[in-house]
């Protein structure tokens, strides 16, 4: 019983730590743009990898990941409706090469798996530095502040050094 109570308390503490206000789509896009390099004309898809991960960034862009630290920012000419809620995407290409201004991202939602949609034209492709992006995300943890409850008294001073070791 005591173990169940400890696990419940631990889960509550972890949930409290994880509950931060999510970034807006514009802020997320700006974050990825800060870690994107100069535009490149194309990118080559790794055909040996069965799956490529992608991250929607509102309705104007998406991040396409080949590995955890290597990816590309695909920015669209116009709004790409349904991208944030898409179940999957299809990326047009020519022999495994995705070209800016020629290729598109086709949004797949439930019920549209076999339909042909015009897609969202890719206007710009920029390589992403996944390591620096991950480092900045790690540094962006949000702190929340609360008023001190009434009646709180200061803790007594301690002779123990700040490091917690013996004097």
Q: In summary, what is this structure?
A:
By secondary structure, this protein is an alpha+beta fold. It is built from three helices and eight strands.
Explain what the structure shows.
The chain has 167 residues and is an alpha+beta fold. The protein has helices at residues 2-18, 25-34, 130-139; strands at 42-44, 53-57, 61-65, 70-76, 88-91, 97-99, 104-108, 120-129. It has one domain (22-139). It is built from 3 helices and 8 strands. It has a 6-stranded antiparallel beta sheet. The protein has a two-stranded antiparallel sheet with strand order 1-6.
Inertia-based shape: elongated
Helix content: 10-25%
H and E string: HHEEEEEEEEH
Low-pLDDT segments, ≥5 res: 1-19
Radius of gyration, Cα only, in angstroms?
23 Å
Report strand order across the widest sheet.
2-3-4-8-7-5
Count of all domains: 1
Structural class: alpha+beta
Major sheet characteristics = 6 strands, antiparallel
Mean pLDDT: 79
Brief descriptors of the model:
alpha+beta; six-stranded antiparallel sheet; 167 residues
Topology:
Layout (H helix, E strand, L loop, with lengths): L1 H17 L6 H10 L7 E3 L8 E5 L3 E5 L4 E7 L11 E4 L5 E3 L4 E5 L11 E10 H10 L28
Antiparallel strand pairs: 1-6, 2-3, 3-4, 4-8, 5-7, 7-8
């Amino acid at each position: 019983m005591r173990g169940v109570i400890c696990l419940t308390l631990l889960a509550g503490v972890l949930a409290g730590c994880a509950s931060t206000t999510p970034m807006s789509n514009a802020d997320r896009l700006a974050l990825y743009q800060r870690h994107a390099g100069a535009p490149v004309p194309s990118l080559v898809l790794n055909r040996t990898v069965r799956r490529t991960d992608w991250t929607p960034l509102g309705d104007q862009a998406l991040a396409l990941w080949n590995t955890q630290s290597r990816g590309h920012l695909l920015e669209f000419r116009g709004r790409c409706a349904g991208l944030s809620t898409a179940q999957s995407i299809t990326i047009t290409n020519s022999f495994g090469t995705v070209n800016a201004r020629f290729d598109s991202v086709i949004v797949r939602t439930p019920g549209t798996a076999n339909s042909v949609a015009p897609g969202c034209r890719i206007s710009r492709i920029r390589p992403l530095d996944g390591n620096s992006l991950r480092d900045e995300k790690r540094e962006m943890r949000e702190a929340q502040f609360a008023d001190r409850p009434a009646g709180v008294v200061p803790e007594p001073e301690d002779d123990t050094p700040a490091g917690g070791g013996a004097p």
